[in-house]
Amino acid sequence: MSHAIMQYAPVFPEIFVLAMVSLILVIDAAVGDSKRDLAYALSLATLAGAAFLTVRDFSTMPVLTLGGLFIDDPLSDVLKLFLYLTVAAVLVYSRDYLRARGLCKGEFFVLALFALLGMMVMVSASHFLTLYLGLELLSLSLYAMVALHRDSSVATEAAMKYFVLGALASGMLLYGMSMVYGVTGSLGLGDMAIALQDGTDLRIPLVFGIVFIVAGLAFKLGAVPFHMWVPDVYHGAPTAMTLFIGSAPKIAAFAFVVRILGQGLESQVGDWREMLVILAVLSMALGNVAAIAQSNLKRMFAYSTISHMGFMLLGILAGSQNGYGSAMFYVLVYALMSLGGFGMILLLSRAGFEADQLDDFKGLNRRSPWLAFLMLLLMFSMAGVPPTVGFYAKLSVLQAVVGIGYVWLAVAAVLFSLIGAFYYLRIVKLMYFDAPLDTAPITASPDARVVMSVNGLAILALGIMPQSLMAVCIHAIGASF
Amino acid sequence: MQNNLLSLVIWVPILAGVAVLATGSDRNAALARWVALAGALLGLIVAIPLATGFDTATSAMQFVEMKAWIPAFNIHYHLGVDGISMPLILLNSLITVLVVIAGWQVIRDKVAQYMAAFLVMSGLINGVFAALDGILFYVFFEGMLIPLYLIVGVWGGPNRVYAAFKFFLYTLLGSLLMLVSMIYLYFQSGGSFDIQTWHTTTLGMTAQTLMFFAFLLAFGVKVPMWPVHTWLPDAHVEAPTGGSVVLAAITLKVGAYGFLRFILPILPDASRELAWFVIALSLIAVAYIGLVALAQADMKKLIAYSSIAHMGFVTLGFFMFNPLGLEGGLVQMISHGFVSAALFLCIGVMYDRLHSRQIKDYGGLVNKMPVFAAFFMLFAMANSGLPATSGFVGEFMVIMAATQVNFWFAFVAATTLILGAAYTLWMYKRVVFGNVTNPHVEEMNDINPREILLLGVLAACVLAMGLYPKPFTDVMHVSVVDLLAHVAQSKLP
Predict the structure, then answer these.
(1) Which residues, including other chains, have CB under 8 Å from residue B218's CB and lie 6 or more apart?
(2) Distance between alpha carbon A332 and the CA centroid of its chain, in Å?
């Protein structure tokens, strides 16, 4: 009996989250609007419980379970822990914001946790079916989250665009998967890798399949030329939802890409590397250039996300453990920075006021030197200026790229990041050099301020001591491949 | 010799900066000033043992510290100084004290942040000079841009935003290409970011040439060399006095230092092959920028252009590839650190009283400010290279070295003796002598004890170095000879 249960031990965190989501759904419906904090507290408790279960069964080597559908390896465990952390920060940052706008409904927490479940499945998938299931669970939850603000036409429009384009991407992905299945006769990533090891006679369908898969992945990552949804969705969604979309799903998307390309299609690196080079260069170019023209901070961050995803692809296209490790480091650092950036907008917003215009940051140093300093750290980190951790993220992916002999790509990357530095510097300029336009006191709650302080200082602390996080990434990748 | 002296030199100012920030808002401005002064003095005190304990007989790195920092990429917290970097650390620590005192009464807005920015920057610059690991160097090299950006942008003049952006993006462009070169070197040297390992790494000519230009851009922008110098006049004019002092006295030296630590020893073949290029740029800086300085109406701009011309001498000396030229360049670096700091402080003194930097607004200052006029005279003379001042020593050595290589190099370089005297003394004449024409000048008071202290310290340095430069050259000599031995060796595979 106990043995029968224990063979499912690797899936306990997922089972736990699912059970808790169902519970929250029921409880929230029962207690009604008056006790909304209960759902909030239960959601945080869910994250803590899941983290406990993940740590308890922390794996040192890959374990396949559920008939090969599900893999539990150090990579998935580490990424899951970061997912819990990110989602928890999202919940803390957004509570006041949602409350002030009447969006603090049980649905938000349920959707966030369902999305988390989807991401956990993606991170632990070792099979096309589970990968796709996880992705769709995540995507559907996100579509609904964006549309949660029913009365806002911008949000509804954003949700519609997100849904249509997302569905298209899923279709492409499925099509590519079916072609790869046709070539290899397998949906499991491990079997697929074995089948492709010695090459195949069916080169053309295989390459076609890879093209469709890469296009689908690029859609989900928001890499150019499949990026069109990103600015509109980031801009249109309520900021709390943007914060969610901009942070945790990037971690899951990284896992998704590495699982498919790095594990399943590992031997075809020659085919997909050139595709990723194009995606990366275009993303870095367009993301950085277009961000300059934005006056809305959310939109600017959307373009900045596009360029960051381009950078992250640099690590993946190296096609080595070193490269995947650096991309993982990059995406975790990016999630941290993105959390801080959108979190700051939430902290500065108040009832009836969205601090999402660049001008809303004017003179922040006079209104709150501490928040301005944290934002300064975040901005320099996004620009990749030491001693913040963003620099090491850039360093590690550049190092991976130069390591495979693509020096020109590294030069292109740094030139685009120079362009990017301009608009991050502009935020610092607004905060420090200009006089405030808005002199209302900042109403952020103490717990959000504490989380923001930890978030910002982590950028600096990890910048001075990057070894810890880097070692975790390298170990996780090394032990999982 | 294993101790933590260099760590102290780096971290004492940075932690002092944090402590200053902790004093909070402008209500505690007085406290912030005293904490800053204490921190700066402490920073100077911990730097002094570097000079007293320095062994001038060896070219090996001294006061070495080595700890694993990021083992994943084989990056170390590796510090050490030789005869080239040690004097620069002392110069920086001294200038930091002066800058804190210079901002004492002038800065009234966000005092704690102002002082903290300078202290943090001072620590980071010490780190630049002490770092022996490429990435550690890069972290300090880039990190110092952040406080400088804020100093120019927050406390600067009317066009400060433009100047701050220009300065930041210019320098970032150079350093990012340098970063790629460093990563390339990491792979070529078999996985090491250690600068001394790079000194012995063999490199093909194409790689050397490409990296030469990448490093040249990184350091050339900082020096700044013609034609990438245009950020400097803007930044100088807009920066507050303290910012100008640090920019001229210290950050320019970071660029020149990079030549000696990276370009010459790591890329010797490309350096020899492309020496003509650097020499040409340096001579253009000396002659052409000298003429540009002559035409300036703004005193800060004039001194800024004069800095570019003087730094042209430094790079010229480096690429003569003989001990005299290199040492001359180094002496010129230190001397320019004193002289340009002093001149910017002098301009600051006048600006605080009249709120103008235009030469035409002054005249007849000697009648109202005789003590100040005397100090100003000394520094103007030093800037034009008068014998017995520090300005003469470096220029003379470089011109001598150039004569050994090519008469015409020396000929063009020597024009600085005429041009330098022309633009400096002409400015001095228009500002200090003559009759008082501007009624506001009538109301100006002579310098106060605080200002006398500042200028007096620098005057003593300028004279000491001009009259007896041997202690300085002794410190450098062995390291310079060793460096030249490196440059003479081909590293082609």
Answers:
(1) B174, B175, B177, B178, B258
(2) 8
Q: B326: number of CA atoms within 13 Å, CB side?
A: 22
For residue A50, the Cα-to-chain-centroid distance in whole angstroms is 19
Q: How far is A35 from chain B (nearest CA, A)?
A: 40
User: CB-based contact (8 Å) between B207 and chain A?
Assistant: no
Q: Say yes or no for a CB contact (<8 Å) between A422 and B143.
A: no
* C-alpha triplet A57, A63, A69: angle, nearest 5°: 115
| CA B392 to chain centroid | 18
Tell me the pLDDT tens digit for each residue of B417-434: 888 888 888 888 888 887
DSSP string of B329-356, one letter each residue: HHHHHHHHHHHHHHHHHHHHHHHHHHS-
pTM value surpassing 0.80: yes
Q: Burial level of B108, CB count in 10 A (0-12/13-18/19+)?
A: exposed
What are the structure tokens assigned to B468, written together? Answer: 């007896």
Of B70, B154, B186, the CB nearest to A467: B70
Distance from CA of A430 to the nearest CA of B (A): 10
**What is the rounded distance in angstroms from the CA atom of residue B389 to the CA atom of residue B375?**
13
**Mean pLDDT of the region B163-175:** 86
Q: Which domain holds residue A440?
A: 3-480
Q: Is B161 on the interface with A (CB under 8 A)?
A: yes
- Could you give the number of structural domains in chain A? 1
Both tokens of B268, joined, read 């010797």
A contacts of B165 (beta carbons < 8 Å): 422, 425, 429
Does B160 sit within 8 Å of A433, measured CB to CB?
A: yes
Given B142, B146, B187, which is nearest A402 (Cβ)? B187
B198 part of contact set with chain A, CB < 8 Å: no
DSSP-derived 3-state class of residue A355:
coil
**Binding-face residues of B in 398-417 toward A, CB within 8 A:** none
Locate the chain A residue with the closest alpha carbon to B176.
A414
Nearest Cα to B86, choosing from B117, B119, B53, B45? Answer: B53
Confidence check: pLDDT of A63 > 70 = yes
For CA atoms A319, A324, A325, A330, give the dihedral sign: positive
Mean pLDDT of all residues belonging to chain B = 85
Q: What is the pLDDT of residues A67-89, one digit of tens each?
A: 888 888 888 899 999 999 999 99
Per DSSP, chain A holds a count of helices (H) and strands (E) of 21, 2
Mutate to test the interface with B, among A364, A428, A457, A477 (most CBs of B within 10 A): A428
